[in-house]
Amino acid sequence: MKIGMPPPVYVWITRSADYPDTQILETWLSEEERVRAHRFIHAHHRNDFIVAHVLKRRCLAEVLQQHDTAALQFSKGPTGKPCVVGETIHFNLSHSNGVVAVAVSEFAPCGVDVETHRQINTLSALIEKTMTSDEQQQINMAPSVLKAFVDRWVLKEAFLKCTGQGLAVPMNSICTIKELKKGRGRVSSLRGISLFFKRFKEGSLAASCKREIAHFKVIQVSPEQLLNNVVMI
After folding, report:
1. CATH topology for 9-227?
2. pLDDT of residue 183
3. Which of 13, 77, 111, 124 could crosslink 161 through cysteines, CB 3.0-4.6 Å?
4. Cα dihedral 192→11→215→86 (10° resolution)
5. DSSP letter assigned to residue 97
6. Quick one: pLDDT at residue 48?
7. What per-residue confidence (pLDDT) applies to 160?
8. DSSP 8-state symbol, 8
9. Following CA atoms 113, 119, 124, 126 in sequence, which dihedral angle do they give, to the nearest 10 degrees?
């Protein structure tokens, strides 16, 4: 790390589909989190939730140097975004069909979105509703319309999750062609927010930080690492 630079935005990613039995992981959740997990009808959605929230606790504990992950308590900030009680740390999580991602920043609000390249029955309508005309043209000319759409979707989702505006801002009011400024490597900026993008085997990942210049560190987490509490930074 260069002198004077803030710590990176850490982004952990794991495949919740690789955790066939989440009963042990459940014991590391709060009672409220366990109740929320069991509201899911389908097992794979429940597993995504459990793995995401255990990973969230492990990652935050690692950065905060907190040995007891159960001691972490959460509430909601002014915009409804979750926060850690008594801490200034920022975090966000996302899960999609067997893939989970958690972003943590020590110095500025952050966001993350992960989406798998799964079939979308209403893809054409979704493209028309959420993308600008320039984006629609580029997406429809791509070798894979689905992958091109998901790439732009995760960038917009990560951006909106970072700002805390969410659904208050129409997705088609953001243009990732005209507004996105290319930076170094996988990092760009959009309206003063840094965006990291990466396409992986199963899908696309984007992370964000409320700073014009930020750097990101992506860390793959295996089931063995999470189960043995080895979540490195």
Report:
1. Ribosomal Protein L22; Chain A (3.90.470)
2. 87
3. 111
4. 70
5. T
6. 95
7. 95
8. P
9. -30
